[in-house]
Design a protein that fits this description.
Number of strands: 11
Largest sheet: 6 strands, mixed
Distance between the termini: 92 Å
Number of helices: 24
Oligomer: single chain
Mean pLDDT: 87
Strand content: 5-15%
Shape: globular
Helix content: 55-70%
């Protein structure tokens, strides 16, 4: 305030009184637990033991949204074609042929054309992929190889001439193809690929060569049996007039025919070998490819980011090899988005089977009284209810990722590209790892009956297991997330802009750098613990703490070990940081979904929203409790509050158990998809009496 504008009656004593008043107000805020202000969310009181009445149809409509119709078409088609349903026992070669017939039937008979959605409406494509994968995961992966990888590489890395030539053949399956990136010696390190494509200016052709056994293309889907083309990733070598003879322009993608279009015989110079029987996904024909002086036209270079002229000159809008490489891989991020989304679909199936069985199965009980459902046992609730809450959380988080990816494809916004790249890496890694562990938990939760192949846990577990490896090894992807977080951390202290997903770091890092409030650390009321602000602040505080501490460690160790050695010394710390960040993102999207429920539902049901809030609270508090040691170590949570969190988590798990049947029904999975005898509402054990001849 300008002194000239002050009232003549304004004194130093008045100013001192104002300071005292402000301090008293701040102290009162510390002493009185806040209400869940700005979060108009239904909270079920611990004193209310009544069961929520959930509108399953409305909740299902909210979750499945506008893609329900296309998924229903997929389910109806396969339900009407028993001959295309995958039997429990099937040989590898038979499974491969069945998988190919399933894909042909989907496209040519059912009229479902996934390829047009890869570029025009990715969200619709991922919805089809989720439905197809729930029918047979091998089919989902084979479809992904054909349309997302082989087809996606043509439309995303190529130009108009490539789309004009190949689009229709890829779309109608006349041109089945492969995505030949991985080599025997190089998987995650794509820049280390050894396959070479040397330009011959005399014949205006590229010569593709596999220089050694380590450069053999390996685990290539569609290669062993059905593929006629391959997008081959190789180092582009241009002839020079210096002593080196050739200049390495970095990894590029090339369309290479591998089989004759009419006879289906392997083309000259190409060797194809079968990778054989795998742990899972045996409906996909993985093969190995070796190239020996295979010549292709210059036009077969997918030249969106780099081109070679007739006279051998290289041109690109991007100035360096690293920028071209980053742009190339950035266009392939859709595979990670699809895997994260599809992994949630697998988790929905497994959770549905295990929970439905646990509701139906009765075992033991009080003396001289009927046996009780095994889901009434706290131990079973502890296994399955947090998992159900996580399934809902992952659904909303990956749905948001799909929306962001779709927006990125439309706008090509540079900031959004970076956001999607990091978020897809983190969610793909976190969700697929969680689902892999949960599949074993579900099998175990169903006892001996879960071990029967007909109940799907074995095939789901085996087929899904590789989700942790392809499209980026999960450990490598988490390191990418950690690297991005450290970059954002540096930006924060240099005053630069933060991308959307990392905006919270600016505020939460400031909170971390101050000491935890000793008063709020002791609040233990239910309203406070179920306040989304408390939950999200706790998640973000943990992430900020991990980020700041690992940055200090890296700075310290890099002085003696160098940057690579320091990174390796802090690797487990970095992985924990990345997982913590992804959990913060997942919770934020779940809270957002609960808040949006009334906005997007034409006839919102308060009980269904209360159920969503209940599940969201269980997800948040269970995660906080699982990492309670971290919060206790820094006095973010006092002992009495930790105990309250534990008690409330157990109670919420019990409450979710009461509506577990409705919550899994809201996934709206048809019987053909779950199709496990132990998950049938009636006659759950009829299968067993039939198979042994009773």
């Amino acid at each position: 305030m300008n002194p000239s504008n002050q009232s003549p009656n304004h004194t130093a004593e008045d100013e001192s009184q104002a300071v005292v008043t402000r301090r008293i107000q701040r102290l009162s805020l510390h002493l009185m637990a806040p209400s869940a202000q700005n979060y108009d969310l239904c909270i079920v009181s611990c004193s209310s033991r009544g069961k929520l009445e959930v509108d399953k149809a409305q909740l299902s409509g909210y979750m499945r949204g506008k893609h329900r119709e296309i998924q229903e078409r997929v389910f109806e088609y396969f339900n009407s074609r028993p001959d295309l349903q995958t039997p429990v026992e099937i040989l590898k070669d038979d499974h491969r042929e069945l998988c190919w017939r399933q894909l042909l039937g989907l496209v040519r008979e059912a009229g479902i054309k996934p390829f047009k959605h890869v570029a025009e409406d990715p969200a619709q494509y991922f919805a089809i992929a989720e439905a197809v994968g729930s029918v047979d995961m091998s089919l989902g992966i084979k479809m992904g190889v054909q349309y997302s990888l082989w087809g996606g590489s043509v439309i995303n890395l190529g130009t108009k001439k490539h789309r004009d030539k190949y689009y229709d053949g890829i779309d109608n399956l006349d041109y089945p193809g492969c995505f030949a990136m991985t080599e025997l010696h190089h998987g995650s390190n794509v820049q280390g690929l050894q396959t070479v494509a040397t330009f011959d200016p005399i014949k205006d052709e590229f010569i593709i060569n596999t220089p050694n056994d380590g450069a053999i293309k390996w685990w290539i889907g569609n290669a062993a049996v059905h593929g006629k083309f391959a997008t081959v990733f190789a180092k582009l070598m241009l002839p020079t007039h210096d002593s080196k003879g050739y200049s390495d322009m970095g990894v590029h993608a090339f369309i290479v025919p591998i089989r004759d279009m009419k006879t289906h015989q392997t083309l000259p110079g190409i060797e194809i070998h079968d990778c054989g029987h795998k742990v899972g996904l045996n409906g996909v024909d993985n093969g190995a490819l070796r190239f020996c002086s295979v010549r292709i036209p210059r036009d077969n270079l997918l030249n969106r980011f780099g081109d070679v002229s007739r006279d051998g000159k290289y041109t690109s809008s991007l100035p360096t090899i690293n920028k071209r490489f980053a742009a190339t891989l950035g266009e392939l991020v859709g595979g990670r988005v699809g895997l994260a989304y599809s992994s949630v679909g697998v988790l929905k199936i497994a959770a549905t089977i295990a929970i439905r069985y646990s509701l139906l199965r009765q075992q033991f009980g009080p003396p001289r009284k009927p046996e009780v459902s095994i889901l009434d046992y706290q131990s079973q609730q502890h296994k399955l209810m947090p998992m159900l809450a996580s399934t809902y959380a992952f659904h909303f988080a990956t749905a948001n990722l799909v929306e962001k990816y779709s927006e990125m494809k439309k706008t090509h916004d540079e900031q959004l590209v970076g956001d999607v790249h990091a978020l897809s890496a983190g969610l793909k890694s976190y969700v697929t790892s969680y689902t892999a562990k949960s599949l074993s938990v579900c099998r175990e939760a169903c006892g001996g009956h879960g071990y029967a192949a007909v109940n799907r846990f074995g095939s789901l577990r085996n087929d899904h297991d590789i989700f942790q490896t392809f499209e980026g090894d999960n450990t490598v992807l988490l390191q990418q997330v950690a690297g991005d977080l450290l970059k954002q951390y540096k930006e924060k202290f240099q005053g630069g802009p933060l991308t959307v997903t990392w905006n919270y770091l600016r505020e939460s890092m400031n909170a971390y750098l101050s000491q935890p409030n000793p008063v709020t650390a002791r609040w233990e009321g239910e309203e406070h613990l179920r306040d989304p602000k408390f939950q999200l602040d706790a998640f973000r505080y943990r992430t900020s703490r991990l980020l700041q501490s690992v940055a200090v460690r890296l700075r310290k160790h890099s002085k003696t070990l160098g940057s690579f050695g320091a990174w390796n010394r802090c690797l487990n710390h970095l992985l924990t940081l990345a997982e913590s960040h992804i959990e913060s993102v997942i919770l934020a999207k779940f809270i957002e979904a609960v808040q949006k429920y009334f906005l997007v539902s034409s006839c919102p049901d308060p009980s269904s929203r209360a159920a969503l809030k209940l599940v969201c609270d269980l997800y948040a508090l269970n995660r906080i409790w699982n990492d309670i040691g971290t919060y206790r170590n820094v006095d973010y949570v006092a002992p009495n509050k930790a105990k309250a969190i534990h008690k409330l988590t157990e109670y919420l798990s019990f409450q979710v158990r009461n509506i577990a049947g409705e919550l899994i029904d809201a996934f709206d999975l048809p019987d053909y998809v779950t199709r496990a005898p132990i998950a049938r509402q009636s006659d759950a054990y009829a299968y067993y009496t039939q198979i042994v001849g009773f």
